[in-house]
Amino acid sequence: MSLEKQVMEQLKAAMKAKDQTALAALRAIKSALLLEKTKTSAQDLSSADEMKMLQKLVKQRKESAEIYRQQNRADLAEIELNQAYIIEQFLPEPLSKEEIENIINTIIAKIGAKSMKDMGKVMGLASQKLAGKADSKTISLLVKEKLS
After folding, report:
1. Claim to verify: residue 62 and residue 129 sit in the same structural domain
2. pLDDT bracket for residue 1 (50, 70, 90)
3. What pLDDT, in 10s, does the model give residues 51-78?
């Protein structure tokens, strides 16, 4: 089942349950899907594009929650974190740090990367292979650690 159909089904369920937090999160996903479709003028988005979009939405919610916490607005931070949790349900299960390290080590060995000069090559392959399974910040930190 496509992401759009899943979101629509959950949106209907959230409307029936009158769950405002879920409604806001699901509407954000639906809106982002529509914007992405009109931007690329495609009928259906690839699963990689969908995962990137969902990760971006989760990241936005978590950053907003952090800003709210800094401003002593725990009530608003909680809403953002709840929305992030709902959006994360559409993402695949994230890999553990050890699994990510193993994949990065394999990529480094495969291309023969030795120094930070090879970081771009490693990051390109790692980002493709780990799309939707790990955030790019984690990947970047691990690659830097391995190459330095």
Report:
1. no
2. low
3. 888 889 999 999 999 999 999 999 999 9
State the sign of the Cα–Cα–Cα–Cα dihedral 10, 16, 19, 23.
Answer: positive
> Which residues constitute the domain of residue 128?
97-147
Query: How far is it between the farthest Cα atoms of the chain?
Result: 56
pLDDT tens per residue across span 5-35: 999 999 999 999 999 999 999 999 999 988 8
CA dihedral 58, 21, 77, 88 (to 10 degrees): -20
Q: Are residues 65 and 29 in the same domain?
A: yes
* Separation CA 29–CA 16 (nearest Å): 18
- pLDDT digits over 126-142, tens only? 888 887 777 778 888 88
Domain total of the chain:
2
The span from the CA of 10 to the CA of 83, in Å, is: 13
- Rounded to whole angstroms, the Cα distance separating 132 from 129 reads 9
CA distance 3 to 107: 30
